[in-house]
Design goal:
By secondary structure, this protein is mostly helical. Helices cover 48% and strands 0% of the residues. Helix 2 crosses helix 5 (104-115).
């Protein structure tokens, strides 16, 4: 009985060891097509239209939230760097704009822009 248990333990341990190894790091990487261009989100191409269409109604000179302007790249970038821009856009309890959360694809574009380095152009 002890011999059978020992033999079973050795067989299971051997199977687990052999089945969970890789000799090549390349086997663990996801292949990337080097011919595909890397497209990064930029303020001018991807973010400005979102901000202008949803935020500057209130966040502009003479508007109700003029104390927190979002009219220029520098202002929007500062808001993104502080965490306020994306945080308020995705805050269900106090969303911006106040009319309700923007579609997930829109807030994802903002998050992608932030992740891509807050590029202007």
């Amino acid at each position: 009985m002890k011999r059978t248990l020992l033999l079973m333990t050795v067989i299971v341990a051997t199977c687990l060891t052999i089945g969970c190894t890789s000799d090549h790091e390349e086997d663990l990487l996801i292949p990337v097509d080097p011919t595909l261009p890397i497209v990064l989100k930029t303020y001018n191409d991807d973010v400005k239209a979102i901000i202008d269409g949803n935020c500057t109604v209130c966040h502009a000179a003479g508007a109700s939230a003029s104390w927190y302007p979002l009219e220029t790249y520098v202002e929007v970038k500062a808001s993104a760097e502080s965490g306020s821009l994306y945080g308020r856009m995705t805050d269900a309890a106090a969303p911006m704009p106040p009319s309700g959360l923007l579609p997930a694809s829109v807030s994802q574009s903002i998050q992608d822009w932030i992740n891509d380095g807050l590029l202007e152009q």
